[in-house]
User: Fold this.
Amino acid sequence: MINLTCPVCSERLELFEKTYRCSNNHCFDKAKEGYVNLLTGNHKDGSLIGDNREMAQSRKAFLEKGYFDSLKNYLSSYIKENTAENAVVADICCGEGYYSHCIKAETGREICGFDISKEMVRLAAKRKNEGTYFVANLSKIPLAEGSVDFAFHLFAPFHEKEISRILKDDGVVITVVAGENHLFELKELLYDTPYKNDGNPPATENLKLIHKENITTNVLLQSAEDIDALFRMTPYYYHTKPEDKAKLSGVDKLEVTLDFAVHCFQK
Assistant:
């Protein structure tokens, strides 16, 4: 069972028709798409932080073409084989819900997902897969302590304290970072001296590394639109000079290495 907590007072949230309410009467309405915004303070609107609508739509269109299916299939298989049928699975920084949607369909597990981008969460909720989606900050996840059996966390900042808090005893989190050769061909186009990633797991004191492996494959990006969409999904997009970004102009096909460094931690 998904156990949401109030972002104001940390009491449990109960759903009454279309409103989540805690015992202190803090209320949060569900949007028409089915998600709830649990951001508070200056960022409670949720529309000015995280990826915007254009970027969310671009990411959704790219992933649904199947380029990252090797990672999706791995996650689905791992969760199905290593969790009970009634397990609660959390998609941390869920984006537009591609992975959680596929995992729900293939495993039947109870899914929840959150992101700081309201546009991403809106798209995730529109998938109508019976998952619970909410807008929230990774530094203060509105889930009850010890309420999650399994979590996964892909290409996002790692907040060990919060992830550890929401996991049950012996709960597991998979975190995925860029492997050594991830998108190296893209970097060869962009930079004069492309570098390889270290692929190392995030530092942690409370979680034990129980398994690691790399999922490596090559895919052919079929259009300039797909190349641009993938580029925008990477941190390189925000740190690349305009003159280097221009090097992608006119490139309409590109074979790239996908190198996903998978690390499994247990509480």
Remarks:
- The chain has a mean pLDDT of 93.
